[in-house]
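Audit log entry. Action: structure prediction of a protein-small molecule complex. Ligand: glutathione. The ligand was supplied as SMILES and no pocket hint was given, so placement is left entirely to the predictor. Protonation state taken as written. Sequence taken verbatim from the request; no trimming, no tag removal. Recorded inputs:
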Amino acid sequence: MTTLYLGNKNYSSWSIRALLVARASGVDIEERVLPLGPEETYKILLKETAQHRVPVLVTDGFVIHDSLAIVEWLAEKAAPGKVWPVDEIKRAKARSICAEMHASFIDLRSDMGVDIRSAHPTPRMTGGLKWDINRVLDIWTNARAEYQGDGPYLFGEWSAADAFYMPVATRFRTYGIDLQGEHEAYAQAVLSHPLSVQLIEEAKAEPWTVDLSKFRPKSAD
Ligand SMILES: N[C@@H](CCC(=O)N[C@@H](CS)C(=O)NCC(=O)O)C(=O)O
């Protein structure tokens, strides 16, 4: 049996990424949501996975932690094209922008925490936050300029790259970041993908409320 331990779908961006890919992969997985915050969550997580952060995947008695490693494991189990693009160049580029999301964007993640179902005031535009937002928009521009003929997602067809940038699109909505032209078109496309629609509905239905200031990232890990 394979179990994916997740944080709140409303707040936990890394959980969302792994979950979207898990659902897209077609791999048979039990989803287990543990709300961020309560002590009980970390007790269960430590006892059952020996980790204290989500997402974590447990399969046949071994543990894979960290969203990117989970996505790679899913890609190995899934049919070609379900997780990464089939085309070698697209696949390499998709992996690059996922790795960049995973390693960077500290100001964006810190000042604009994911809160799918809410609206928050736009934060003060520090140099770091502006840099991060512009870098995301550049990534979207470059991918869309090259692959718009292949479909509405970053590399044409939906891939893990879209799962990694979906929680950025929700952040832009939550914090009132005005998008134009191709950026708005991409945000609309990724947020209206059936996997996103399902996840947003589930996030809205969650009973927990979390103080985002307690979960600000302190480093790139
Ligand atoms: N690099 C990790 C980051 C995991 C992470 O920071 N998860 C957050 C939730 S989005 C967490 O578990 N926070 C628990 C806490 O801070 O108490 C990954 O990509 O999976």
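Audit: result stored. The chain has a mean pLDDT of 96. Residues 2-80+209-215 form a domain with the Glutaredoxin fold (CATH 3.40.30.10).
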